[in-house]
Amino acid sequence: xxxxxxxxxxxxxxxxxxxxxxxxxxxxxxxxxxxxxxxxxxxxxxxxxxxxxxxxxxxxxxxxxxxxxxxxxxxxxxxxxxxxxxxxxxxxxxxxxxxxxxxxxxxxxxxxxxxxxxxxxxxxxxxxxxxxxxxxxxxxxxxxxxxxxxxxxxxxxxxxxxxxxxxxxxxxxxxx
Amino acid sequence: xxxxxxxxxxxxxxxxxxxxxxxxxxxxxxxxxxxxxxxxxxxxxxxxxxxxxxxxxxxxxxxxxxxxxxxxxxxxxxxxxxxxxxxxxxxxxxxxxxxxxxxxxxxxxxxxxxxxxxxxxxxxxxxxxxxxxxxxxxxxxxxxxxxxxxxxxxxxxxxxxxxxxxxxxxxxxxxxxxxxxxxxxxxxxxx
Lengths: 176, 191
Prior knowledge:
The complex is a heterodimer of chains A (176) and B (191).
Chain A: H1 5-13, H2 16-43, E1 45-50, E2 64-69, H3 71-75, E3 83-88, E4 91-102, E5 107-113, E6 118-125, E7 130-134, H4 144-147, E8 150-151, E9 155-164, E10 170-171
Antiparallel strand pairs in A: 1-2, 2-9, 3-4, 3-9, 4-7, 5-6, 7-8, 9-10
Chain B: H1 2-19, H2 25-48, E1 50-54, E2 79-83, E3 97-101, E4 109-116, E5 121-123, E6 130-132, E7 137-141, H3 151-154, E8 157-158, E9 162-171, E10 177-178
Antiparallel strand pairs in B: 1-2, 2-9, 3-4, 3-9, 4-7, 5-6, 7-8, 9-10
């Protein structure tokens, strides 16, 4: 034997088999937990940090933590006035927060460009399978007024509750 | 598709349960636990990495074919494997076959070939007009242009609707194989 007999005995004495099976069991447990978290986050409820000026009175510029539920998107019960998270049609890597102001078949009236003083109203009909989304802050929001109605499939959650900062804790109002 | 799998699985469980003598509480508890765990793992893998999907319709003939049903309840279309790694960065190549949610019906997934990426110009068939694909969108068309509902009717689609890239046909057995990238010539001008 190459090693000293003491080292060899000690090495052989360690219950490798037990350690390995234990490690595998732990690893499986972590995997299962990760899967459970994924499913919960994607199908039930998740938490998101929202930032930016486009939803101003409802969501702060500096960033609010909100709870997002995914059930009503899947069941198709998104309604006018809901604050939704959707993949930006202009950049699929970006998720934006807007308020739904029109569902398929509705006609939506909006001011063309209030930021530049263009207050002429314009009315559009939302096509089938699409929704019209707009930021609450009409002066600083890139939304359906620029890129048109968005397919329902881009929506992936409805923000329903503000969690942080604590002074704003509460449900997000459905504003019409 | 998934429903059918679940039914098959439940039937399997029933058979196993009967042969094991069904009565014991412990056995049932173990069974539920395993089913739930399996479902969680399965959903996660299918959501994040690789998924299996069945294809109906003939819009992608001859890449995918619809075979006449031999007995009731059998699969009518091809089964394909779709990977979801491409969704990490939304990087696609021309000629990829992609699965995406229908822009006018989010419950229906469509499978088409990607013809043009953002910033490219494309010639719209049936009119010699050129169109620039807007930022974050892509142009999709079926291989079988005679019967395909695609960008020619609903225009460019947002990349955010894409749910995966089809890589292999896994059923029926005689057509198992990878799907090659194919770009139709003469549609998009070269750079």
